């Protein structure tokens, strides 16, 4: 996970005997302890031949936020003025927090009447740093903003997607849902949405009474529009109920192992579709379809013909198309409700050597003889029923499909 880069805006003369230098050292240490990378422009960091303003511009361009140590020197510094102006431009056009720590020698009058007019105390949240005695207070004040930055950069596409979907939910309902999931309170709405998204997607077993996940979803739903509600329902329950170990195993097979097949012990293919979605690690599942086995032609013939027909309909009927599709969107998963005997697996993977993953679905007790390394971590029969039943019931209530209009 990338570390947020925080531009440290400040001004401290070399012979300064006030609290500038202790504050700088303290804030650098605080940022590093919070998992951030301080961006400091000074004589020591300048590259040979680099001009001061170019160094500032480059540092600001690479940063994800700004922390201003507000001293008497900073109030009078033209460089700090330029840095703040650049930060405010980025702040207005996107998520770029401006965090301000004031030193003891800066008075309210100096803030209101100084060169940095945009720092009016009535417009900004200012954090006081009293010569090191309140460092923990500074940490408590800045910590939520830094956590929000880290959360936005964690690379978890599903979490970011769910957090975005929750932007329409009012603060009261967000807090109610957070209480059900026993999440700590968050002073920033954006941080609360991030924590809720993470909490909704955290793996947890179902509970018969007062289930925290279902309780949280009831407080959050419905969202504006049926499709966002459906997405939050499916993503939350799929990630909470299906073992992460199964998703990891599927991805290991896809990326490193041949032949590419896995076995799921489940009552039906509906659950297999949920496993595909969980393994995709994306709001949209990998493309997948079920190929039934017909008795008339036998397993091998019916499977080959069924896969070929499905791939033709998707425009993926040659190896090059399948390679490109996997590179862009992930593999195509063929769900097969049949026992994967060795001969069948060998012939299928020889016929379809690229772009596909075969997921065989078998009933309890019918997977003996299959290597345990290919059998996915499964759900109990009760857990499987609860997963599918809950998704269906929540979708019926909060995201019903619109009736089709007669043609």
As laid out across the biggest beta sheet, the strand order is 2-1-3-4-5
* Poorly predicted parts: none
Helix proportion of residues, in percent? 40-55%
Main β-sheet description: 5 strands, parallel
The percentage of residues in β strands lies in 5-15%
Q: What is the CATH class of the largest domain?
A: Alpha Beta
Q: Tell me the span between the first and last alpha carbons.
A: 51 Å
Number of helices: 17
Q: Number of DSSP strands?
A: 9
Describe this structure in words.
The chain is an alpha/beta fold and 407 residues long. The chain has three domains: 5-152, Toll/interleukin-1 receptor homology (TIR) domain (Rossmann fold, 3-Layer(aba) Sandwich); 157-241; 244-378, Rossmann fold. The protein has 17 helices and nine strands. A five-stranded parallel β-sheet has the order 2-1-3-4-5, with helices on both faces. Helix 7 crosses helix 9 (189-200), helix 11 (226-241) runs antiparallel to helix 17 (381-398) and helix 14 (299-313) packs parallel to helix 16. The model has no long low-confidence stretch (mean pLDDT 88).
Brief sketch in words of this structure:
With 407 residues, the chain is α/β, with parallel strands linked by helices. The chain contains 17 helices and 9 strands. It is elongated and about 90 Å long.
Summarize this structure as a short list of keywords or feature phrases.
17 helices, 10% strand, Rossmann fold, five-stranded parallel beta sheet, alpha/beta, 407 residues
């Amino acid at each position: 996970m990338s570390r947020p880069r925080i531009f440290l805006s400040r001004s401290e003369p070399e012979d300064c005997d006030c609290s500038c230098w202790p504050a700088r050292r303290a804030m650098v240490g605080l940022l590093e302890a919070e998992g951030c990378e301080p961006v400091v422009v000074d004589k020591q960091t300048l590259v040979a031949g680099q001009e001061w303003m170019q160094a500032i511009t480059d540092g600001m361009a690479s940063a994800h936020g700004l922390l201003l140590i507000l001293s008497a020197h900073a109030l009078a510094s033209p460089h700090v003025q330029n840095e703040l102006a650049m930060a405010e431009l980025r702040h207005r056009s996107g998520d770029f927090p401006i965090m301000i720590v004031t030193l003891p020698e800066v008075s309210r009058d100096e803030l209101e009447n100084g060169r940095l007019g945009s720092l009016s105390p009535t417009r900004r949240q200012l954090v006081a740093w009293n010569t090191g005695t309140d460092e923990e207070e500074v940490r408590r004040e800045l910590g939520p903003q830094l956590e929000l930055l880290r959360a936005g950069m964690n690379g978890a596409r599903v979490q970011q997607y769910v957090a975005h979907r929750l932007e329409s939910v009012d603060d009261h309902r967000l807090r109610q849902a957070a209480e059900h999931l026993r999440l700590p309170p968050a002073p920033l709405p954006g941080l609360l949405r991030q924590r809720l998204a993470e909490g909704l997607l955290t793996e947890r077993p179902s509970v018969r009474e007062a289930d925290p996940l279902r309780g949280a979803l009831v407080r959050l739903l419905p969202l504006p529009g049926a499709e966002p509600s459906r997405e939050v329902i499916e993503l939350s329950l799929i990630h909470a109920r299906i073992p992460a170990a199964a998703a990891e195993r599927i991805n290991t097979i896809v990326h490193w192992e041949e032949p590419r097949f896995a076995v799921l012990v489940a009552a039906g293919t509906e659950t297999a579709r949920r496993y595909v979605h969980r393994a995709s690690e994306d709001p949209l599942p990998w493309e997948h379809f079920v190929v039934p086995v017909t008795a008339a032609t036998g397993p091998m013939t019916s499977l080959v013909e069924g896969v070929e027909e499905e791939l033709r309909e998707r425009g993926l009927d040659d190896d090059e198309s399948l390679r490109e599709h996997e590179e862009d969107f992930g593999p195509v998963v063929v769900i097969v409700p049949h026992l994967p005997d060795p001969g069948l697996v060998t012939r299928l993977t020889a016929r379809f050597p690229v772009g596909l993953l075969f997921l065989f679905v078998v009933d309890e007790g019918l997977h003996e003889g299959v290597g345990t390394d290919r059998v996915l971590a499964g759900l109990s029969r009760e857990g499987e029923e609860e997963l599918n039943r809950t998704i269906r019931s929540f979708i019926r209530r909060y995201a019903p499909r619109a009736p089709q209009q007669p043609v």
